[in-house]
Amino acid sequence: MLHPSVRITTVLFLTAALVAGCRDEDVVARVGRTELRRADVEAFASQRAPDSGDTQAQLEALIDRARLAEQAEAQGLDDRPGLRARLAAARREVLAQALLEEQLKDATQEQALRARFASSKEALSRRELHVRHIMLRLPQGADEAEKRRARDRANLLYAHLLGGASFEQVARESSQDEATAPRGGDLGRVLEGQVHPSFFEAAAALKKDEVSKPFETPYGLHIVQALAPVETRVPSFEEARGRLAAQSRREAEDRLMKDLRERVSVERFPQALRPLEATPPDAGSRVGEESR
User: Fold this and answer.
1) Helical (H) or strand (E) element with 255
2) pLDDT-based confidence at residue 277 (cuts at 50, 70, 90)
3) Distance (Å, rounded) from C-alpha 143 to C-alpha 86?
4) Could you give the CA distance from residue 25 to residue 37 in angstroms, rounded to a whole number?
């Protein structure tokens, strides 16, 4: 027969083993009443800088935040209306984003995007230019006198070009576009949508080697020379992937929201949005009396 002390030790050992065996292996720490799981550590780490330490350091930092949260609950801070609203907003945003990711994941699958690309090549095509330009800046809020001086300067440069001056030389000496002036004004190949529409259309109207008259855009005054005829370019699938994915996701989200608006009922109470200062001084007491 076992000695009583031996029996007690055995029971305690078996109890401890049973508890250890029943513990959820996904739980990495228990802070007060809060259980922290692997997913909690991963979510916490994803919100921090990449060099915030190893997994153990991340866990210790999370434990400290859990200690603070436990104390906040102990002090009843989570019962404050403002804090309840913030907690509800965070939960709402996380759930909304989770639903969007779940419902829209098929919209950006490789096969779906390639099918979309094949059916929309013509719509994806864009005109392409190769031009060089001379730009004179117009100061923000320039008055008429300043604008007139800039226009006179542009007309003078244009006259020099018509007289046989080298476009590249004039651009190097006079263009105020610091990026292209050292290259003789060469902008390289420009796709439609990459520059202001008024600039693109004026340049697209030129024949090869033709020089435009000075024209104005929100960025200043320009003189443009076409270096090649306008071409229509169809992007590769890889170039168009981001645009296709954004379009597909937006359309799928629109369909989802249309379905939810039809299925999920909403009751609005616009009077509750009235600013507090719009409420008469004695209205609060009357409302309180009516509610009793």
Assistant:
1) helix 237-263
2) low
3) 49
4) 9
Q: What phi, psi does 188 have (nearest 5°)? A: 75, -165
Is residue 185 within 8 A of residue 177, CB to CB? The reply is yes
Instruction: State the Cα–Cα distance between residues 193 and 199, nearest whole angstrom.
Output: 10
Rounded Cα–Cα distance for residues 219 and 199 (Å): 10
pTM comes to 0.55
**Contact predicate 167/132, CB 8 Å:** yes
Q: What pLDDT, in 10s, does the model give residues 213-236?
A: 999 999 999 999 999 999 988 888
Reduced DSSP (H G I as helix, E B as strand, rest coil) percent helix, strand, coil of the chain, to 5: 60, 15, 25
Of 103, 107, 110, 165, which is closest to residue 134 (Cα–Cα)?
165
Q: What pLDDT score was predicted for residue 23?
A: 60
Please, which residues bridge with residue 132 across strands?
186, 225
